[in-house]
Description:
alpha+beta; CATH 3.30.1330.130; five-stranded mixed beta sheet; two-stranded antiparallel ribbon; 11 strands; about 25% strand; globular; binds zinc ion
Amino acid sequence: MVSEALVEKAKEFHGHICPFLVLGLRASEIAMQKLGLTKAGEVETVGEEILAIVECNNCFTDGVQVATGCTLGNNSLIYMDVGKNAVTLVKRGEWRGVRVYIDSEKLRNKYFKKEATELFEKVVVKRQGTSEDYERLRKMWAEIGWSMTNVPEEMFKIEEVETAEIERAPILESVKCEKCGELVMKTRIRVVDGKAVCLSCLGECEAVVGRGIVPNFKIPLKVRR
Ligand SMILES: [Zn+2]
Ligand SMILES: [Zn+2]
C-alpha cells in the first residue's frame, strides 16, 4: 500500500493528487517489491543502476518518478512514447526487470464514479467547466486518487521481463554555435554552409509535448527586443 507520506510528496511534485499519479506510485511500489528494490538513492541515480522505463507522459509518470527516484534529469528514466500506463523497473547489469501495467477500464466501475467521469469530460476534455465544476472535480479526483493507494495487485498486469542492454547517458563535449554563440551538446550541432549551427537557430528540434514526442517541433521562442 502506498503510504500517505508518499502521496503527499507526489502531490508536492505533481501539483495535485489524481488517480493516475497514485497509480504510478502503486505500480512502482509493486515493481520495486518484486525486484527487492528501494527507492533509488545516490549510488543508483549517479550510476544509473536502476532504470524506470515509462510508456506515457501523463500523471502516471510523475508518480513513477517520485516513487522510484528515477527521473528525467538523472537519466534513470526512459520515456518510450507508446501511450500506455505502464512502468518497467530494470536492474542495470542483470538486465532483468518487472513491468507493471494498469488497465484503467478495469478500475472504472469500482473506483471512478459516473459523476466524476462526466465532470472530467466537461472540465478537462471539453474545457467547459465553471470554477465550481473545477473545484468539485479537483476534490473528487483527489478522493479517487486516495482510494487508489491500495489497488490490489491482481488488478495490475505484472510481468517479469528481460531487457536488452540500455546505453548509459554519454558525456559529450560542447561546441559553440557560430550563430548565437551558445554552447551546445556536440551531437546537436548541424553544419550549414560550413558553419556549426544549433537547432534553436535552425528553428526546429525534437520535443516532448503533451501528445508525446514530436520530431519536427517548431521552436516557439522569440527573444523580445
Ligand atoms: Zn495529475
Ligand atoms: Zn545557435
